[in-house]
Design a protein that fits this description.
The chain is α/β, with parallel strands linked by helices. It has 11 helices and 9 strands.
């Protein structure tokens, strides 16, 4: 089923000025779903899922958070935090005229979705959480992102050099996920350092107490053998959220390369959120 796709933009104000954020809409109607990307990745990573959801009648929006994709990329680390990202999602809903949405995402996007549920619970119809980064990911996260921050801050020619090499490659001639990888490598050292610094030294996610107070229904997807996004974090989150369903992915690649099973779970969950305001707790295999 073909669905309409439209690119839009809106602006957010901060103490340092006015920044532009870009998004893509898929489909139409009042059953809104917002999908958020992983750290340093573009919103286009969720294009396949967005199309699958929109084909079932949902109105899906993918957003490039500040510092990512085609949105503005200021080089001020004070502009980057989970709270700021959560506020950008609320600003998107305001811009779209959407009273509520199912909000979800991967990795960084999962944590931002939790932030939205804390700062604006009345706007969240449900949560679609893949690979949250919580307590069990601390050490692996430091090992993964500390070298990136060091390179971007003190060896900027390495980041900018990779950008110069990868940017000219036409995305249309490479497989979809290779294109996403190339887009992720398309970074400026100054803004990349600011994003990683702002998140590295800020709070990663709402506290356990705040998470336990989230009443929105949630679908939590965890992956085995993923140190940066350990399955233990996803399982812990599913235990904390009062109305959560946990789905165990077969691997980190399943939703990327063999998406049918998880797409069906996401579609069923999102449609269910718009049919009923609450779901009872259960576990899926």
């Amino acid at each position: 089923m073909l669905v309409s796709e439209r690119i839009g933009q809106f602006f957010v104000e901060s103490e340092s000025g006015r920044d532009r954020l870009e998004y893509t809409e898929y489909g139409a109607g009042d059953a809104w779903v917002v999908l958020l990307h992983g750290q340093l990745m573009p919103r286009r990573m969720h294009q396949p899922l967005a199309r699958a959801l929109a084909a079932e009648g949902l109105h899906v929006v993918t957003l490039d958070l500040l510092g990512h994709g085609r949105s503005d990329r200021p080089a001020d680390p004070l502009l980057y935090s989970m709270t700021a990202f959560g506020e950008q999602v609320v600003a998107l809903l305001d811009h779209l005229g959407a009273p509520q949405a199912v909000v979800g995402g991967t990795s960084l996007g999962a944590n931002v979705s939790l932030e939205v549920a804390v700062i604006a619970p009345e706007r969240v119809r449900g949560l679609l959480i893949e690979m949250p980064v919580l307590d069990n990911a601390l050490e692996a996260g430091i090992l993964a992102f500390a070298p990136i921050l060091f390179s971007a801050r003190f060896l900027p020619f390495t980041i900018n050099g990779v950008r110069r090499l990868t940017r000219p490659i036409p995305r249309g001639i490479v497989p979809f996920w290779a294109g996403i990888a190339l887009d992720t490598l398309d970074q400026r050292a100054d803004s990349m350092a600011a994003v990683v610094h702002g998140l590295f030294f800020g709070r990663i996610a709402p506290s356990s107490k705040q998470r336990r107070a989230i009443r929105a229904p949630a679908l939590v997807v965890g992956h085995p053998s993923d140190p940066i996004h350990p399955a233990a974090d996803a399982e812990m989150l599913a235990d904390e959220l009062p109305n959560a369903t946990f789905v165990n992915a077969r691997s980190i690649l399943e939703w990327r390369l063999w998406p049918d099973r998880l797409n069906r779970a996401a579609v069923g969950f999102a449609l269910g959120c718009w049919k009923t305001p609450r779901r009872s707790r259960r576990t899926a295999n």
